[in-house]
Specification:
alpha/beta, eight-stranded parallel beta sheet, 8 strands, binds S-adenosylmethionine
Length: about 350
Amino acid sequence: MSKKDIFQKILKKPASVSVEEVAWVLEDDSLNEPLFEIADEVRNLYLGKDVYLRGIIEFSNYCRNDCLYCGIRSSNSKVSRYRMSVDEILNTAKFIAENGCGTVVLQSGEDPFYNDEMIAEIVHRIKKLDVAVTLSIGERSFKEYKTWREAGADRYLMRHETADEELYKQVHPADDFNIRKRHLEMLKQLDYEVGTGCIVGLPHQDDLSLAKDILFTYEFDSDMVGIGPFIPHPDTPLGKEKPGSLMKTLKVIALTRLFLPDSNIPATTALGTIDPRGRQLALNCGANVIMPNFTPVFYRPRFTIYPNKVCIFESDAQCRDSIKDLIETAGYKAVESQGFRRRVHENSSRRI
Ligand code: SAM
């Protein structure tokens, strides 16, 4: 089989594609142009030119975890920690709803200070604004996930980070990939729209390892997939490592679009951070979501999971307007819709 035939195989018989075949595509840069073209074609066919906006509030940078790559890991004593009050969170959510975003994303480190009742109350009150609510607050109990789903939460974003079990252990020494998978399964069982995703360019990660990420998101049938480059944070054990590459990240996005034609794939902030054109390029390679940051400017510079994050010092209005410009310049249209995954039936879904 020629390498270009692999794209037809992914589109027509994704379940039969091997991890080695995906790794070949990742290795061979002569395939970049046709890969990006076909990913854009698939995205336009299934999702049109719409780009969903998800306004994000990073409401706490306290974290009980100690992920080796993350700037807000518990053992980084240089972080100036903050927690937003319930009222601050609700006021910010209202501002997001008034500013053309159909989804409010609540993100934090793993911070048990916000117990099940507090999160349920926040979700319940945000739902009155007629927006979708996404939680991205890490691993909690089944009972808590259930309470929040019943309070109205629509989606849960929990990147799998890496589907390479050995690498997962290296960067989360106290954790295990199988535990992460169990949490993702629980969320699916509760009928959340579930988001997975990975970091591209972690130390010791190779193309075979990234191919496992792509196949994992396909096999899990992820409703959303967040893919961003690794950006070394100086105050972490991986601070002196090389960052992930723009091109490899775009390839992982494009391949993911071929495997999951109707899923939501964000053009991530991390891509915009390593390259000023990163998010536009991602939109041209299959991405269809952007997450403007509405964390109050007073707190925003303190949610430093990696350095030099884009939009850190812009006002909310500047951030919103620059994102709308970015979307239009790339040839797409920002829409206010809540942006749920619109599943295309398996039999009619392989149309290219
Ligand atoms: N605590 C929640 C969880 O565990 O799902 C969500 C918050 S976490 C800070 C958000 C995401 O940031 C992680 O899933 C990880 O992929 C990403 N991240 C953290 N440090 C990073 C780094 N140095 N480079 C790139 N991405 C990073």
